[in-house]
C-alpha cells in the first residue's frame, strides 16, 4: 500500500506496525521550507545603536590622539623621559574608554530580561533588546493576535436569502450543503477530540456528520446515519488560491461525484459558472462584511460519471471552475480582552500602527475600528484593489462607517491617464484624514512595476513629492506611490506571507524601525524580517520571534516596548554623562599634566 503525503501532513494513526517512508521532494521552496529558510538565513538586522557607539569610540580616539599630540611638544620641552611620555599616552586611552559603560548597558539589558521573564515574556537575543526602545512602526496580524484564535460560527446564508440560518434552523442534514460542510475541510475527530484549524473544526461540528477513515478503501469519509461521502482527492488550502477543494463520491446518490470548493468569497466568485447572478451574491456579501463578519463562501458542481476520469487529470484551477454557488459561511472574531486598551495606548504614544492580514478588508476595517487602532476612526475607508486583471489600473472603493460602498469612477483616454488620476486622488483624500487600505492584488501589481533599485535605497515620501510627479516617468510614479501606500496605509488585506515580509522590508528601507506581532505560520517570514518580532507560545510564529509571550494577550507588546525604552534611556544617558565628564577631564588633564611634570622636575 503506497500513499503520498503532502508537506505539513500530520499522521494521527497507523494501521500497519511497520511503515517505510521515502522523501520524494524537500527544500526551501515549500511553505514550511520558507519558514525554515527565514529562520536559518534571516535578513540583516538594524544595528544602528551599536554603529553609533563605534562612531563615538572612533571620535573619542581621535580627540584623545589630538589631546596627546598637543602635549607632546611640552613633554619634550621639559625633557621628560621617553618611557613617561609613552605611559602618558596609555593613560589617556584608559581614561577615554572606561569599561564601566558597556557593563552598565549589559546590566540594564539583563535586568530588563529578568523583569520580562517575571511577566512570562521570554527573550532570545540580548543584542536586540535595545531595538525595542527604537521601534516606530508596529504591524499586527489580526486572527490570533488582535482577536481570539477561536471563532464563533454564526451560521450560513444561502443565495437570495436575507437571514442567517444557525443551529436553531430546522435543517435537513442530508442535503448537499451539509455534505460539503462535513468533508470539505482538514479537521478530524479522534477519541472525541477535534483536531485541525479552528474554522474547520467549527464547520465540522456544525454539520452534525462524523468523519472517519475506511481502511479497506484507504479513504476518508463522512457519515450521517446510513449515508456516506468518500473523499477521493484533496486540494489543500493555499494562500495564493485562497481556497481548498475536494472531489467526493456520494454513495447515497447512486455513487455520484462532486467537486466541493470552500474559500474566500472573492476566489469563489471568480470560479462560478456564467449562469450565476454574481451581482446578487456580491450584494449579499457586502451586507455581511459591512456588519463586521468574517465570511467564507462555498460552491459545488456535479461531475458526470463519464467525465470523472477526465476531471481527475485536470489541474486544480480547471477542476474548480464552473461551480454553482451554495452559501456564505459566517463567522465572528472576538477581540481579546486587552486589545482595545493596548492599541489605544500605543496610538497615544504616537506609534505607527498597522494591521497586516489575509482577511477581507471590510472585516479588518471593523476590527481595527473596534479596537481603536485607526488614527481617524470616524473617517471613511478607501480600498485600493486590483479586481480586473485585464486592465492596468486600480479599483478604488470608498466605504462609509455604515457599510455603504461607493466605487470611484475615473475616465480618461487610456489606462495610463486613469492610473495617474487614481494616484493623485489617493494622496489628496489621505491628506483629508481618510483611512487607506491596500489589498494583496494591488500590492502585487505595484511590486511587478517596482524597479529593483528602489529596494536598495531609502525613499523619503511627502505630499509635495507625490504631487510633483509631472516630470517623472510612469514607473517612477508607481514606485513613489508604492512607497507612499506602504508608509501611510494602516490596513493591508488579502496579503500572502511573502507580501507581509515585503511590507516589513519596505518599511525598513524607508527608515522605520519595525515590530511585527503575529502567531501563525504565515507570519513567520514577516516576524523574522522585522527589527523586533513578537509571538506567543504554542504557535508557529514562536520559532522566528525574538520575544515569546506565554500570555495570549497583546499587553506583552507594551511591556517589551517599555523595557526597551528603559534600556535605551539608560544607555543613552550613560553615554551622554560620559561625554560630559570626558570633556571636563580633557580640559583639566591638559592643564594638570603639564603643571605636575614641571613641578616634579
Give the class-level CATH name of the domain at 150-333.
Alpha Beta
Number of helices: 19
- Name the strands of the widest sheet in spatial order: 1-21-20-19-2-13-18-17-14-15-16
Please tell me the overall pLDDT: 81
Q: Which overall shape is indicated by the principal axes computed on the Cα atoms? A: elongated
**Unreliable sequence segments:** 452-464
Counting helices, strands and paired strands, the structural category is alpha/beta
Helix content: 40-55%
- Report the CATH architecture of the domain at 150-333: 3-Layer(aba) Sandwich
E-strand count: 21
Using only C-alpha atoms, the radius of gyration works out to 31 Å
Distance between the amino and carboxyl termini: 99 Å
Strand content: 15-25%
CATH superfamily name of the domain at 150-333?
Calcium-transporting ATPase, cytoplasmic domain N
Largest sheet: 11 strands, mixed
By CATH, the topology of the domain at 150-333 is Calcium-transporting ATPase, cytoplasmic domain N
What would you note in describing this structure?
With 601 residues, the chain is of the alpha/beta class. Among the domains are: 150-333, Calcium-transporting ATPase, cytoplasmic domain N, CATH 3.40.1110; 376-438 and 451-487, no CATH class. 42% of the residues lie in helices and 20% in strands. The chain contains 19 helices and 21 strands. It has helices spanning 31-40, 48-77, 82-96, 100-118, 176-183, 198-207, 265-271, 278-290, 308-313, 316-320, 339-348, 361-370, 415-431, 440-449, 463-467, 474-488, 497-509, 524-529, 555-600; strands at residues 121-123, 137-140, 147-157, 188-190, 193-195, 210-214, 219-224, 227-238, 243-250, 256-263, 294-303, 324-335, 352-356, 381-385, 395-399, 405-407, 435-439, 491-493, 514-517, 532-536, 547-549. Strands 1-21-20-19-2-13-18-17-14-15-16 form an eleven-stranded mixed β-sheet, with helices on both faces. It has an eight-stranded antiparallel β-sheet with strand order 3-12-11-10-9-8-7-6, with helices on both faces. The protein is elongated, with a radius of gyration of 31 Å. The model is unreliable at 452-464 (pLDDT under 50). Pfam families: Cation_ATPase, Hydrolase. It is found in: Membrane. Its main location: membrane. It is a multi-pass membrane protein. One of its GO terms (molecular function) is ATP hydrolysis activity.
Amino acid at each position: 500500500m503506497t500513499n503520498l503525503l503532502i508537506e505539513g501532513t500530520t499522521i494521527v494513526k497507523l494501521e500497519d506496525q511497520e511503515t517505510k517512508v521515502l522523501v520524494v521532494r524537500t527544500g526551501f521552496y515549500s511553505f514550511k521550507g520558507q519558514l525554515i529558510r527565514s529562520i536559518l538565513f534571516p535578513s540583516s538586522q538594524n544595528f544602528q545603536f551599536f554603529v553609533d557607539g563605534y562612531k563615538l569610540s572612533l571620535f573619542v580616539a581621535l580627540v584623545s590622539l589630538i589631546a596627546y599630540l598637543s602635549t607632546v611638544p611640552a613633554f619634550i620641552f621639559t625633557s621628560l623621559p621617553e618611557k613617561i611620555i609613552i605611559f602618558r599616552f596609555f593613560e589617556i586611552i584608559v581614561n577615554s574608554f572606561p569599561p564601566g559603560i558597556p557593563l552598565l548597558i549589559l546590566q540594564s539589558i539583563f535586568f530588563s530580561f529578568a523583569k520580562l521573564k517575571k511577566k512570562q515574556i521570554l527573550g532570545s537575543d540580548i543584542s536586540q533588546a535595545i531595538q525595542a526602545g527604537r521601534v516606530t512602526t508596529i504591524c499586527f496580524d489580526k486572527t490570533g493576535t488582535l482577536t481570539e484564535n477561536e471563532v464563533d460560527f454564526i451560521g450560513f446564508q444561502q443565495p437570495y436569502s436575507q437571514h442567517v440560518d444557525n443551529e436553531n434552523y430546522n435543517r435537513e442534514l442530508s442535503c448537499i450543503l451539509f455534505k460539503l460542510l462535513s468533508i470539505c475541510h482538514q479537521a478530524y475527530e479522534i477519541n472525541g477530540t477535534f483536531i485541525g484549524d479552528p474554522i474547520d473544526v467549527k464547520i465540522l461540528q456544525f454539520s452534525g456528520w462524523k468523519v472517519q477513515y475506511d481502511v479497506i478503501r484507504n479513504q476518508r469519509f463522512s457519515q450521517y446515519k446510513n449515508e456516506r461521502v468518500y473523499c477521493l482527492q484533496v486540494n489543500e488550502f493555499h494562500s495564493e488560491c485562497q481556497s481548498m477543494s475536494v472531489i467526493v463520491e456520494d454513495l447515497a446518490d447512486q455513487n455520484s461525484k462532486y467537486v466541493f470548493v470552500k474559500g474566500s468569497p472573492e476566489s469563489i466568485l471568480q470560479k462560478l459558472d456564467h449562469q450565476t447572478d454574481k451581482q446578487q451574491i456580491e450584494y449579499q456579501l457586502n451586507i455581511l462584511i459591512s456588519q463586521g463578519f468574517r465570511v467564507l463562501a462555498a460552491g459545488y458542481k456535479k461531475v458526470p460519471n463519464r467525465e470523472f476520469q477526465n476531471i481527475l487529470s485536470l489541474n486544480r484551477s480547471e477542476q474548480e471552475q464552473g461551480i454553482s454557488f451554495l452559501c456564505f459561511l459566517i463567522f465572528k472574531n472576538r477581540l481579546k480582552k486587552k486589545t482595545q486598551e493596548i492599541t489605544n495606548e500605543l496610538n497615544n504614544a504616537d506609534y505607527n500602527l498597522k494591521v497586516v492580514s489575509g482577511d477581507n478588508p471590510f472585516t479588518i476595517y471593523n476590527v481595527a475600528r473596534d479596537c481603536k487602532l485607526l488614527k481617524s476612526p470616524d473617517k471613511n475607508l478607501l480600498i485600493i484593489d486590483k479586481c480586473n486583471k485585464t486592465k492596468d489600473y486600480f479599483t478604488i472603493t470608498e466605504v462609509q462607517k455604515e457599510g455603504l460602498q461607493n466605487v470611484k469612477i475615473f475616465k480618461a483616454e487610456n489606462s495610463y491617464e486613469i492610473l495617474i488620476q487614481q494616484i493623485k486622488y489617493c494622496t489628496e483624500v489621505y491628506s483629508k484624514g481618510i483611512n487607506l487600505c491596500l489589498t494583496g492584488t494591488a500590492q502585487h501589481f505595484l511590486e511587478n512595476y517596482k524597479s529593483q533599485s528602489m529596494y536598495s535605497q531609502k525613499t523619503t515620501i511627502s505630499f509635495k513629492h507625490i504631487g510633483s510627479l509631472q516630470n517623472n516617468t510612469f514607473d517612477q510614479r508607481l514606485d513613489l506611490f508604492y512607497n507612499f501606500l506602504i508608509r501611510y496605509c494602516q490596513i493591508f488585506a488579502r496579503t500572502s506571507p511573502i507580501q507581509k515580509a515585503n511590507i516589513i522590508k519596505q518599511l525598513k528601507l524607508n527608515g522605520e524601525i519595525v515590530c511585527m506581532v503575529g502567531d501563525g505560520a504565515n507570519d513567520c517570514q514577516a516576524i523574522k524580517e522585522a527589527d523586533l518580532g513578537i509571538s506567543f507560545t504554542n504557535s508557529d510564529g514562536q520559532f522566528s520571534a525574538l520575544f515569546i509571550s506565554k500570555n495570549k494577550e497583546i499587553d506583552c507588546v507594551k511591556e517589551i516596548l517599555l523595557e526597551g525604552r528603559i534600556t535605551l534611556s539608560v544607555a543613552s544617558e550613560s553615554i551622554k554623562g560620559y561625554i560630559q565628564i570626558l570633556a571636563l577631564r580633557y580640559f583639566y588633564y591638559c592643564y594638570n599634566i603639564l603643571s605636575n611634570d614641571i613641578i616634579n622636575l
